[in-house]
Write a structure and sequence with these properties.
The structure holds two protein chains of two kinds.
Chain A lengths: L2 H49 L2 H39 L22 H4 L2 H12 L67 H12 L3 H7 L1
Chain B lengths: L1 H49 L5 H26 L7
């Protein structure tokens, strides 16, 4: 075989080897791509299956919440009137009156009164209960105050007139204590045993006061 | 004989480099796709895992319904015990 033929043969064999190497490597890479796409497709199918009922459930939740909002707005407007209802909302959430109520377009043009100057804190608390009951945990007042005896208020009673004014207009002031107090009380030797005049504890305390400073007092105790 | 030598030189100088260049380009691009596909698969798997909590929406929906029913009950009671606002 002539020399050019040998060189040609070697060159062709080398080209075939190069082709085999690159094509096999490409096939391996494509197989990895196929496996990755299969995994991705499986996950995407799971996403589609899991998210299928979400729209229906969220729609039902929104429908229920809309019904609740409609109920509360309607009740507030029915019981307080449009003007006071807008004022209550404005008093609880400053600036919220501009948005108005959803089912009452005229509420956007209703001028909100300065409700906090008209109603007491108790009334606003009642209004807050109705407005924020579903999310009372996030209430600025620190949660629902319904039936909470420590934070309930009876001040709303002062709004309503009564035939006989039984409640005082001004309660008694708290007693002044300290060294500058107008009434000074002597400290008792037996704290908490201050009895009424004539009782055994008062008599015993009187006798102790009488015997103090007498010569025989110390002797009798010895 | 000279023509054979010219053919060998052309084969070695032109054809072999072109073949190697093309095959190398195809292989590098195929290998470049593999990490992207793996990231897509990982992201899809993570998204699917995030949606494992989606069935809890059923419980949320039931609780919202019960809450609104409770609010409706309170509203009905308030509607009974409170007087309506006076008509202006």
């Amino acid at each position: 075989m002539p020399a050019p033929g040998v060189v040609l043969l070697i060159t062709v064999v080398a080209i075939v080897l190069v082709l085999v190497y690159y094509l096999v490597s490409t096939i391996v890479a494509l197989r990895q791509i196929t496996a990755g796409l299969d995994e991705a497709i499986g996950s995407v199918v799971e996403i589609i299956e899991k998210s299928a009922p979400v729209e229906e459930i969220v729609t039902a939740i929104n429908r229920d919440l809309d019904a609740g909002v409609d109920l509360l707005e309607g009740l507030l407007v029915k019981k307080a009137g449009m003007r006071d209802a807008v004022g209550l909302v404005e008093g609880l959430y400053p600036g919220a009156a501009a948005a108005g109520f959803r089912n009452f377009p005229e509420s956007k043009t209703t001028k909100a009164p300065r409700i906090s100057e008209v109603y007491t804190k108790g009334t606003l608390t009642l209004a807050r209960l109705g407005r924020e009951a579903p999310i009372a945990a996030a209430s600025p007042a620190g949660g629902a105050v319904l039936r909470d005896v420590t934070r309930g208020s009876l001040m709303a009673r002062a709004l309503y007139p009564e035939a006989r004014q039984t409640r005082p207009e001004r309660l008694e002031r708290s007693p002044i204590i300290g060294t500058d107090a107008p009434v000074q009380y002597e400290p008792s030797e037996s704290p908490g045993v201050r009895g009424a005049p004539g009782t055994n504890a008062a008599i015993a305390e009187q006798e102790r006061n009488d015997t103090e400073g007498e010569p025989g007092a110390d002797a009798s105790s010895v | 004989m000279t023509v054979w030598w010219i053919g060998d030189i052309v084969l070695l100088v032109v054809v072999v480099p072109v073949v190697i260049y093309l095959l190398n380009g195809v292989l590098s691009e195929a290998r470049g796709i593999v990490p992207s596909v793996n990231r897509i698969a990982a992201a899809a798997a993570a998204g699917s895992k995030d949606l494992d909590a989606a069935p809890l929406l059923l419980t949320t929906g039931d609780q919202v319904k019960q809450t609104v029913e409770g609010v409706a009950g309170y509203g009905g009671s308030l509607d009974v015990i409170l007087d309506d606002a006076e008509k202006e």
